[in-house]
Amino acid sequence: DAKTTQPTSMDCAEGRAANLPCNHSTISGNEYVYWYRQIHSQGPQYIIHGLKNNETNEMASLIITEDRKSSTLILPHATLRDTAVYYCIVRGGGSQGNLIFGKGTKLSVKP
Amino acid sequence: GAVVSQHPSRVICKSGTSVKIECRSLDFQATTMFWYRQFPKKSLMLMATSNEGSKATYEQGVEKDKFLINHASLTLSTLTVTSAHPEDSSFYICSAGDGKMATDTQYFGPGTRLTVL
Fold first, then answer.
1. Which of A42, A62, B35, B102 has the fewest Cβ atoms within 10 Å of its own Cβ atom?
2. Chain A neighbours among B 44-103 (CB < 8 Å)?
3. What would the pLDDT profile of A41-55 be if each residue is shown by its tens digit?
4. Residues A90, A6: Cα–Cα separation, whole Å
5. CA max distance for chain B
6. Can you say whether the dihedral through the CA atoms of B99, B112, B42, A12 is positive or negative?
7. Separation between Cα atoms, residue B96 and residue A74, nearest integer Å
8. What is the pLDDT of residues A64-96, one digit of tens each?
9. What's the rounded mean pLDDT across residues A25-46?
């Protein structure tokens, strides 16, 4: 599975959009980009995933560059409850490839 | 949808005893379930993958005789930590794949905090 690079930490003001970047320059054609987040002392929460096209759901939007070497997770209106560690993971489709968690980005939403 | 539960949420046991942790997919059937371990201030580490009706596949360095995994049904997997020692104290998290052919997204349980005295 391709490796990802994320900033160690980011701050965001409450109510503003949080844009979390992820680099995955070695991603291969059949690998998906997944985003999870982990709030302290809880299990990871699935956010969104995508292959090529941009995706949006009730939690977030995922913007994938045309060359698929990087992506951005957007939380449109961050709240204090969005404070968590966000993991960007590249994984093969179907049951191919396990989720390999890196260190993620610690997002702190401040009032 | 896609809810995974774990029981218990916390357990404290004496050294040498065995502890069983249950992982259930509540609203979907999971052919594959996964067990992770997370030490303080560290990221999740995959321990093993279990498929319903077959033996689990363990990651390198994980003792299969110490961490017994049973996946007897499409909604239940159990992890038994045998002869637990203080170094086994950790946060144990399971996940279940939703089985959708294209992506098989994993959904995680809330975790079990194990403390071995």
1. B102
2. 44-46, 49, 91, 93, 95, 97, 101-103
3. 899 999 999 999 999
4. 12
5. 44
6. positive
7. 26
8. 999 999 999 999 999 999 999 999 999 875 555
9. 93
Residue B103 CB neighbour total at 10 angstroms: 19
Q: In what order do the strands lie in the sheet with B19-25?
A: B4-7, B19-25, B76-81, B67-73
Q: Give the chain B residue nearest A33 (alpha carbons).
A: B103
Residue that has been written with the tokens 């995508």 in this structure: A50
Please indicate whether, in this complex, the C-beta atoms of A99 and B34 are within 8 angstroms of each other.
yes
Query: Looking at residues A15-28, what average pLDDT do you find?
Result: 96
Residues in chain A: 111
Q: Does B17 touch chain A (CB under 8 A)?
A: no
Question: Which residues are CB-contacts of A58 (< 8 A; sequence separation ≥ 6)?
Answer: none
How far apart (Å, rounded) are the C-alpha atoms in residues A84 and A75?
12
